[in-house]
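Re: the request from the purification team.
They wanted to know what the chain is likely to look like in 3D before they choose a buffer screen. I agreed to run a prediction and write the result into the notebook, where they can find it.
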Amino acid sequence: MSFPCLDALESRTATLSNKLAFTPPELTSPDPSSSSSSTGTEGANEPSYGRIQGGYKTYEHKAPYLLDHGGILPGFKIAYETWGELNADRSNAILLHTGLSASSHAKSHPENPKAGWWERFIGPGKALDTNKFFVICTNVLGGCYGSTGPSSHDPSTEKPYGTTFPILTVWDMVRAQYHLLDHLGIDTLWASVGSSMGGMQVLAAGILGQRPDGTNRVSRIVSISGCARSHPYSIALRFTQRQVLMSDPNWSRGFYYDKIPPHIGMKLAREIATITYRSGPEWELRFGRQRADESKSPALCPDFRVETYLDHQGEKFCLEYDANSLLYVSKAMDLFDVAQKQQEELRALRAQNADRLAFFEEYGRLPDDDTVESSEACTLTPPATPYRDRQTPQTTATPQATSSLPPLSPDLVAGLSPLRQIPTLILGVQSDILFPAWQQREIADALKSAGNRSVTHVELSERESMYGHDSFLLLVEEVGGGVKRFLESSGGGVVEEGVDVDANVGC
């Protein structure tokens, strides 16, 4: 029996190995946080995050930057792109937050004509109307498309950080974005808009944007297919992807930048992720049980059409994104929880590390006896104590299906209380298995319980969208139309009747 799928992997490994053999050492560890650009015409068998298409701007934060779990970066860079014009009083800015692996390139522009990841949603008359708004999109801290992340060079070693890069959180990403806004002279956002992990960031932006006088740096919030805290199912799915990736021998514990990248692990991780991005009903209609070639005998390599689709998605992605960025950013998603207790614990950690930050600011290094960088809090090291099954208390209610809503936590309500004065649009999709619809209902209910009287919750039924989590990338009218009406209404509410979830569920 032949195995063309394995032959293809071995062929790519050989091609990458040959490229390394003829590449000068100084070119094998590209620093994507530099502002250099390329034409994007190089071969496909090399990491494309090291040859980023130009067209983005770079904000450089030159002061030491403390992360929630104790890590300190000597500084950082944030890649960003903008569309539209900032008005005279700088009040029309919209900060667009990305999902896990997206770059700052949300929309094409003269400096980079390639279609962006939200191309059809940004522009004159579109959801984010550039005739009215100044739209900003960043590559998150920890990413690999121009912002500082594990593939960036550590100034102390002049080599890529790899897995010496400290653990970061969604809160760390948003604080970095606020530094960018300060640099741009933008004190208050018209809106914070985000989908998927971006839907997490918008909640963090509102919480971190609270001022001592009770006002907020965020005037409106749009959270699409997001959550207030990662639930065990999504954590498990991302953990599985990380395990597959880290099991690739070429991952080399994160130090592969002058070697063959872990393209096999990345391909398999992306295939797992793709399953979570779409829905079973869509694939039933799209693929059914059709085989790629009915005239051939069954094979162990991709054979059914759905298998060839997953294989294609893995092939496209395996050299498109930095493996370490996938590990760190996905871990930040798992750690996200806006509950009051979790916020207090992170604030306490930051307070404990204030002296370390002050030392770093004065001397440019950590104290000689510093141990935080090697602690469990700042590494990808598993806990020393193995897992043991515990009896679930009888009083703890658990959802019976992805559509069920767990009891509303008072701690979650308290954590979202800084958003009580912010008009908010929460949009979910019933066919989404990665960020199931009950998580958006949880946000809406918690906000209402916290005293927010300007919450609009829209939930698309399976009849309206079978595209699952990826609906936010595909449905220009169902998603983009609601976003546009919300952003352009004077009070921040959707102006069309009957779109609130209470009138929409079951359609």
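For the purification team: The two ends are 49 Å apart (CA to CA).
Please add any questions underneath this entry.
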